[in-house]
Amino acid sequence: MFMDKYRVVSHKKMKFGQEKRYSIIAIEDITPKFVKINSKIDIKVNSNIYIDNEYAYYKKKGIGEVVTSKSGEGVLIDNSYNIKYTGGYSFMGDKIFVDASFPVLILINGRILNSLESIGRHHELVEKWLIDEGYTYAHAHKVATDVERRYVSSLNIKWSEYCAEVEKHMHKVYTGQLQKSPEDLDLTPYIYSRDFGALNEIKNTTPNDIISLND
User: Fold this and answer.
1) Is 12 helix (H, G, I), strand (E, B) or coil?
2) Cα separation of 180 and 39, whole Å?
3) In this structure, are 168 and 107 located in the same domain?
4) pLDDT tens for residues 85-105?
């Protein structure tokens, strides 16, 4: 029987009457995919679990039902806007943004990588999934960076070489002047970082001027 393998990225104890229950969040790094499980047992971060027919298994034993599942397949990645932090996501999480000036295809030691996949689908989308589950930006960003790293490594690209190339372009994006920001951009990363300069620049380049920095 074939089952999809996921990696645990977070675990929390839940109040469930007299019974002990745990909310387990796990990610499949390559697609990526997300599951949230109502588990009978606690499971450590980075442990592997398996999903079959909306039920989760750990070490060949059933542990609980999948209560939420999401997939990165088919999620829109829009690179027609300027994004100060290179990547971002909409309030609703139905769109992922990558800066218009950031190169889509990057050559790294003889291998071509699609930045919409590595930055957009494997970092920004995962980050948004976790933020929507109530996790802090710092924790969500840490988990998303790990997923991005695992995806890049699966392409036989060294993480250090990837970072060196990507960071050059990210610096150019951040120091450049924004021209057009999406009106539904989630500002959580900027607010967390207290990056008021970037927030003002986004406000001034957003259609309809819908952002209020006093909210």
Assistant:
1) strand
2) 44
3) yes
4) 999 999 999 999 999 999 999
